[in-house]
Structure formats: C-alpha cells, structure tokens
Amino acid sequence: MIRLEKRPQPSKAWTVATPILAVILTMIFGGIMFGLIGTSPFEAIRTIFWDPLFDPTFAAFSRPQLLVKAGPLILIAIGLSIGFRAGIWNIGAEGQYIMGAIFGAGAGLALYPMESVLILPLMILAGALGGWAWAMIPALLKVKFGTNEILVSLMLVYVAENLLASVSSGILRNPEGMGFPGSRNLAQWSSSQNLELIPNTGMHLGVLTAFIAVILAYVLLTRHIQGFNIRLTGEAPRAAKFAGVSPARTVLFCLGLAGALAGMAGLFEVTGPAGQITIDFGSGYGFTAIIVAFLGRLHPVGILLAGLLMALTYIGGELAQLMLGVPGASIQLFQGMLLFFLLGVDVLTNYRVRFGSGEVRA
Amino acid sequence: MSNSLLSLSGLTKAYPGVVANDDVSFDIREGEIHALLGENGAGKSTLVKMIYGLVKPDSGTMTLRGAPYAPPEPSAARKSGVAMVFQHFSLFDALDVAENVALGMETPPPRRDLARQIREVSETYGLPLDPSRTVGTLSAGERQRVEIIRCLLQNPQLLIMDEPTSVLTPQEVEILFETLRKLKSEGTAILYISHKLEEIRALCDHATILRLGKKVATCTPSETTARAMAEMMIGSSFASPASKHLTPGDVLLRVDNLTMPAPGAFGTPLRGISFELRAGEVLGFGGVAGNGQDELLLALSGERTSPRGTIWVKGADVSRDGPVDRRAAGFLTAPEERLGHAAAPNMSLTENAVLTAGRRQKLVKNGFINWTRADRFAADVIKRFDVRTPGTHVAARALSGGNLQKFVIGREVAQDPDILVVNQPTWGVDAAAAAAIRQALLDLASKGAAILVVSQDLDELLEIADRFGALNEGRLSALRPVADLSIEEIGLMMGGAHDMEVAHVDG
C-alpha cells in the first residue's frame, strides 16, 4: 500500500526537483506517445529539445525565435502568477493580450503617418491600458457582485477574439490593403516598429520588458508589503483579512496588473514579430502562459526558465511537425502532459510517499 | 466494583521523532470513573486512540474482561463494548438528531424505533433532547448529548470521554456529571480525559497521570489537592499568576450599542453590546461557544466594520476603520483560531510576525519589509514567551497548538498595545504555559493597558479578570466585579437556564 504523509513543512529540495522530474516524465511518456504513432521517440525528443538550439541547419533561425516566443509567455505569466499567488484565477490573459494589441495599435494608427519617437511609448501605454481595462471587467464584477473571475475572464477571451475579427476588417483595416482584412504593418512604420535590440538574437523591447518584469515581480513578492499581502491572501484568506488586507483591493490589483502586462505583451507582438492586427493575431500565448506560470512554480525566476522551456517545445514542436511529419495535436498533447505531470508531482513538495501499510488514522 | 474491565500492559507507541506512549500500564475497573490526566502532548490522545482502535500500539497488550483485546478499527472496538465521545463533534448541521445518530450506527433501526430509543435513553439518563430537532439549531451542550446518546444506544461497557466539559456551562456540567454517575451506578466504566482538576476531584474514583508519554503517578482524586495533581502533571511546581489590582484609569475602549447581523447561516448576530474598558483593567467575557464570541472579535479587530459611533478608542470613533488603522491606534486583537486566522499555516514565524506587527514594530518602511528587523522581532517573541521551535524560519503549521498559541498571543503582547482583546488565550496550552500567558496579560494591564479576555474557561476568567460579563445569543449581560460572584451566578449569567429543564418526553 502506498500512503502519503504530510510533511511538517514544504520540502525545499522537492520544490526545485519537481519541475525537473515533471520534464523527465513528460519526455518518457511523450516518447511512448510518439512511439505509438510510429515516430522514433528518441528522434522526436531530440528534434523538440536539441535541434532548435544546436542543429547547425536550424539553430541560426531557431535560437532568436526562442526569445521571441519566450518574451510574451514570460511577461504574461509573471502577471498571472501574482494573481494566482493570491488565489485569483485570471484565465483570460489571451483576451487581455488581444485587447492590448488592439488598443495599442489603434492609438498608433490614429497618428499615422506622423513620425515621432514618442509614438511607440504612447502605444505601449495604450496597450497596457487596453489589457488593464479588459481585466477590470471581471475584477469589478467580482468585487461588486461576487461573480467568478474564472468564467468571466475566460468568456471575455471570445468577446476579444470577435472584436479582433471585427476591427481587422473594420476600423483598423489597412486602407491601402486592397480590401484584405488586417491593419497596416506596424513593424514597417519607423515610429511604431519594435525592432531587435541586438541583431539576430530575437531580443526586442518586449523581451527586455519581460526580463525587467521578472526582476520587479521578484522584488515585489519577497521584499514589498503588497507582495506579502498577496501571498498571505493566497495562503490564508482569513489571516489576510485579520492582517487588514482588503480582498477587493487585492482583486483589483492582481487582475489589473496581469491585464496590463498581457496588454503590453500584445502590443510588443503586434509592433514586432506579428507586425499587424489580423484575424488570427491571437496565438494562444495567453493560455500557454498559464502553463508557464505553474511550470515555474509561480516564482519569477522559475517562470523565466519555464518560459524558455515552453518556447523551446513550441519551436521544437514546429520543427518536429515539419521534419518528422507528426501531427500538431501530438505537440499540444505533449505540452499538456508537461502541465499534468507538473501538477501531479507537486504533491511531493508537501507530502512524503511511504510504502507498506501503516496504522489506521483518524 | 473491583473487577478489572480493561487492563493495559506496557503500551508503547512511537511516531517519528517522538515517543507518544512509553510502557503505559494501568487497569480500569468495572463501574469506576477513571481519570486520565496530563498536559497537552502528554500522550492522552494516542493512548485513547489505541483503546478505540484508531491507532495500533508498537508493543504492549490490552485485555478486556480477561480476553486479549486488540481492535483493528473503531467498529471492532464498538462491538467489544467500547464507545467514545470525541472532543470535536462529528455531526451534520443540516440533519436532525435521529438522522445524525443513525449515521453513526452499523445497522440503524427504522426511524420510528430509533426516535423512541433516543427518547428513552434521554429520559433515563436525564439528557433532554428532541430527536427531530435540526442539529444546526442545537447548543454545544445539546450537540454533546447527541454524541453521548449515540454511544449509549450501543450499551457500552466502557465509555471514553475526551475533554467533555470544555464546551459546557456550569449547570450543563452538573447535568453531565449526574448522567455519568448514573451510568457508573449501572456498572459502566468511564475513562474521563480532562485537565480540569476540580472536576476530576468531584467526579473520578481513580486517576492515572501521564507526562511525556509515561505513566508518572496514580492517585485518588478526592484525597489529593488540585495543586498536587497539577504538579504531578507538569513535574514541577509553577507560579500562579499574581494579580496586581490597580485603580482603573481612563476609558480606553468604549463599545456603544453594537448591533450587527450574523455573518453566515449558523453565525450569531450581535445585539446591542455596550461596555467600557479602562486602563489597567482586565475584563472577562464568558459564555458557551457560539454565543457571539467570534462575531464580537471580528467587529473589534476591524475585520467586519460596524455602524458609525459603535466602537470608540480613546475618544475617537474607529467603527469604520480596518485592522491596520486600529493597530496603529494601539488597539490589538488575537482571534481564537490559531491556524488560518491568527497565523498563516505555510508561512514562517518571521512572516507571521509581519502579519500584525508590520506597522507598530516598524518592520515595514516605505512599503518595503525589513526582514532583519522582522526576524529579530519574531526571535524576541519566541524567547520572551518560551515558544519551543527550532527557529524563526519554521512554518507556523509545524508548531504544536500550544506553542503556536504562545507565539500569536506573544506577538500582540510584545507590541505593547494600549488595548488588547484576546479570545481563548490559553486554549490547548499546557498548565505552565497558560500561567505564563495569563501573567503576561496581567503584567500588561499593570503597565496601564486595557485587556479584554474572552474565554470559555471560567477558572481562567475568575483568576485574572477584574470584572465579568457573559455573552448569550449575541447579548452581553451586566458586568459584575469578579470578587463578589459565585459560580452559580455566573452560570445564570451565561444564560444556561433556557435548557436546564428536566427531560420531557414527547415535548
């Protein structure tokens, strides 16, 4: 018989070891899955994890992609993780990401074709505002009427997607685009373009912002009373009320911050890698960031590493689809396994596994 | 009378890092009330769990009426005639009494028969209880009767009772004792676990005293003084708190007609509570659990804000202020529930120190936490209040209940409040630590602080309070000086009278 025994306090060693164990288990079971669909497991794992970084043919293209993909994931996940620490479950980052892109692009395009160094900063602010405002909808509904933020924020993703479709063929459509849906290309307008800061690294302004967000989140959570209050709210809501933390203000802060960061991520994407507002601008970063946040143990540094790992599975997954012809669904399944194992082995942090029968417990 | 019913021989049970019971042997005779006495952590619970089949001993044997007895699970213990009333009830609020009793039986009889049996037992043993009442509407004393009747329906030979009087008014205690004496006269043995020495002296025939898992003494309680038993329990003599009666000073806290609706379905509304608390004074509020204690604490701490003009600190209206502002004004509180309310279970003691002391101890500056100062403050509390823990980095949930209690009370006392409100300050704390906590409260009062102690332990209130009031269904009785109060008067103040009538059949 296998029993779980609660540890007197969470194990520090397992907190670090569980993500690594989860990755190893994902490789094993993912490998079995690839074997079952007729692909060599070793080749599949190598194509996903090794080739994007070290294969001479692909690395030149793949390596910069790593930061391009990891940047928005990390930026969004940092915002989400702070809410998750407080037990506030914002599932709608994808919608906030889209709204940030629409607001930011809209603010910029309103000034087209003016040239000014102030336009990009203005667009970043507008992007943050758009994401923030979209997140304030579930926040205010929760505070005023006690609605469930999980449902409301998730529903608003679909609203945002429809808005995206509407503006791409409506008010934001490129007047010189010969009737095709989609805005002007913001990456090609010098006032709005978000270029690589260092050539061929993928390091653009959004990635830099993500790294700064990691540092600030770390300081917030470990040094600042607001971060302490957020952790306290998540650990023991009644103790937080006793300490004097206002639950309403915590909800507004956490959702607002996550929304603003997701909105900024959307703006950096639309002015850089994506280039324009199109119907298929929403790329699922907002949902994948949830996995990244948990894979990183809701810890800023963990999220940094998790974002890079997740980006690697994206790029490697695409490479595997291209080179080995595995179906796209198998890559999503692979990523799903990662979250599954991560949450599963998490139990080891707080519990000890004992084999053999013990006495009956009350 | 002198036949041995259950004899324990060399019972030993070790958990990782601690020996809960070490070679414990004693006999319980038929028809006796046997007290099991010991501090928290002395091993009483483990011993009882072994008898009731919840825990298997590592070594040692038990014999019941001469036959080997080793119940693998509680149902086997019940079949052998051993029943237990736990300290914490396992009842469903939404079900009625008969349904709750049926849930605890292996093969419940049809409802009509069961209701009749419940009425019979309740009449025979003087435990008034209506089988069709919803448990959510019962007082703590009545809930306990449900548990007792559930046990008595199985005709036990040995009834184990774990701290049964902690939730009862003095009158309810008398009713319970009558029931237990009647059971004894019918030949049922009772193993009675308590740390209330006067009760044991009044009720029990023999007492076995445990300390650190070992049997250290046996005595005949009626022939032993309470103090002698207490000293056997803790293995040394201890100082009783010395009260320094000062003339009370200015009014520091004034509560004026505080009325609030109940916070939840089974909560208690507060009804027109008014009192004044002066510098240097210790005020004690008694009452059976669930009569508005928790609700009053929430209103005083600022977790629930009350209508304007109801709570005044040093002449300023703080009714609409939250906990942070009240603490800044020198008004501190300590709630009853240690884990999850007074302290965050998974956070370290240092972090838990920041929880209430951030502002007053200047642990937070410009929004940033000074962890060095916080750690020093936590270490200071640990040292001053003798909290047994490896260090300030330990998570709150790793501390034993009594040690965490010392920490959460110490955390408030160490902040030198002007007004301190504590709920159940010594609940679950051993005798020596309880004395230390009471002494700390009295010292604080003698320095000019105003103290309100809410407690269900009447002995505690009589020992340290200057004035006494009782909460009953959200109302506060008139406040009386403790010096001229008798236990009977206190019982009436606690409003126990409403369920004092004798058992009535068929209502």
Short description:
The complex is a heterodimer of chains A (362) and B (507). Chain A has 362 residues and is mainly α. Chain A has helices at 12-36, 41-49, 51-54, 59-85, 93-110, 119-145, 149-168, 205-223, 225-235, 237-243, 247-271, 285-295, 300-324, 328-345, 347-350, and strands at 2-6, 196-198, 203-204, 351-355.
Number of helices of chain B: 16
What average pLDDT do the residues of chain B reach?
A: 86
Give the number of DSSP strands of chain A: 4
Q: Please report which band the strand proportion of chain B falls in: under 5%, 5-15%, 15-25%, 25-35%, 35-45% or over 45%.
A: 15-25%
The chain-level mean pLDDT of chain A equals: 91
Q: Using a beta-carbon cutoff below 8 angstroms, give the protein chain pair with the largest interface and the number of residues from each chain.
A: A-B, 24 and 39 residues
Multimeric organization: heterodimer
CATH class of the largest domain in chain B: Alpha Beta
Spans of chain A of at least 5 consecutive residues whose pLDDT stays below 50 are none
Q: Cα-atom Rg of chain B, whole angstroms?
A: 24 Å
Strand neighbour order, sheet with most strands of chain A: 1-4
